[in-house]
Design brief:
By secondary structure, the chain is an alpha/beta fold. It contains 15 helices and twelve strands. Helix 6 packs parallel to helix 7 and helix 11 crosses helix 13. The structure holds pyridoxal-5'-phosphate.
Amino acid sequence: MNQDQGESRPATRWLSEPLLWERGRKGRSGLSVPTTGVPVAPIPAGAAGEGPDWPDLGELEVVRHYTRLSTWNFGVDSGMYPLGSCTMKYNPKINERLAGLPGFSGAHPLLPETAAAGALQLIYELEQWLAAIVGLAAASLQPAAGAHGELCGMLMIAKYHRERGGTRRKVLVPDSAHGTNPASAAMCGFSEVKVPLGADGRLDPKVVAGLLDSETAGIMITNPNTLGLFESSLPEISRLVHAAGGLVYADGANLNAIMGRVDMTRMGVDVMHINLHKSMSTPHGGGGPGSGPVAAGKTLEPYLPGPRVGYQDGRYFWRRDLPHSIGRLHAFHGQFAVAVRAYSYLLALGGEGIKDASGYAVLNANYLKEKLKAAYDLPYDETCMHECVLTNAKQRGDKIATLDIAKRLIDLGYHPPTIYFPLVVESAIMSEPTESEAKEDLDAVVETMRQIASEAKSNPDLLHAAPVTTKVRRLDETSAARKPKLTGDM
Ligand SMILES: *Cc1c(COP(=O)(O)O)cnc(C)c1O
């Protein structure tokens, strides 16, 4: 892949790998068994229906088919994947092994407590560790993803106000919040009050103060925000919101920037979610299960989803004595395999290791930002957290769109960063290198990005035509999302 200009592929070869059904030949087999001399007993008529329509293939045909398909894809294991807001970092394989241990992977969620003591202990301890990492009182592993955690937290806030007879309906959502925040608030019956950003890309407490009233149920703050900046006024904003009778929700999906370093109680946070499938050893994206645990301070702890794991006299058990709980959010207890990976990740790193990981994530993002700000426009020239936001403003004069830069990166061996997000920045290029990249790899991507900036001047058509090294060229992304074709026929 790492070549200047790949040969372009004829259209007919785009998807030249035949389906296994097209390749199969009646009577082929992936398995040879010795003849035993035992006579073949015919299956009695009517005992078996038509077999499934599976193709007959040799083992090597199958191995090559899947190996070829795997080379069409791109993953963290094949190269840098600097998607902003996604934390596509390397996940140690050992955690995958541990999640697959039969005692974990085979445990049925309806097992009696005495037969699932190890699983209950893992849930109990992980909830305690996560609460400690963010400095809050307690946590629940039930929510199945980040947005589900937001829903959980907002349901807790709604119930808190309901129990006090309140009719508070408004939730403040800054322009720098993740896009799922207003949707989660709306699903709980709240209406959104937009909060504009200050000139430095952060929230201004004076602006927040002007929007608070007796209708305010709370505020949802993404911290670090979607510009990759730390909301340093959060303690002051929390004081204002609390004084107005509201509560503070922190979207902590970007935990990778602050793991083990920020005490959310001191920042005035009442409830937050974190994404285990970003920071803690489960890959984000790709359609696998996620996990968005919610942590709460003392005020909202009683509202956490139930049942919760309790521990007394050496015994773990399900607590159902939770009169204020919002109840179940999940058929069972959350995405347990993701929890096992996170548990094993935390055990391996320990308290200091967690801090180191977030420290390197922030260092790498600032390194990238500083090395690229001469070649690309940097709309907010501030110390960033785990990700930095650039734009194509310096290339626009040469008719180069952010999309062209992203597509050219594919030809040069990288997964593109997040583009056109956050919405508050025009034609954004948002990059989150994560702590897993070595300095040499960061230097290589910097060189590549600089090369693209100079190609934008010297040979813009190279960017307009990209990607040329991939199976498919520029896709009609709207149709792909709106009218997906999920069958094999072309
Ligand atoms: C990823 C992300 C979410 C949503 O998480 P999902 O698991 O995709 O639902 C919410 N907020 C922020 C800040 C995020 O980065």
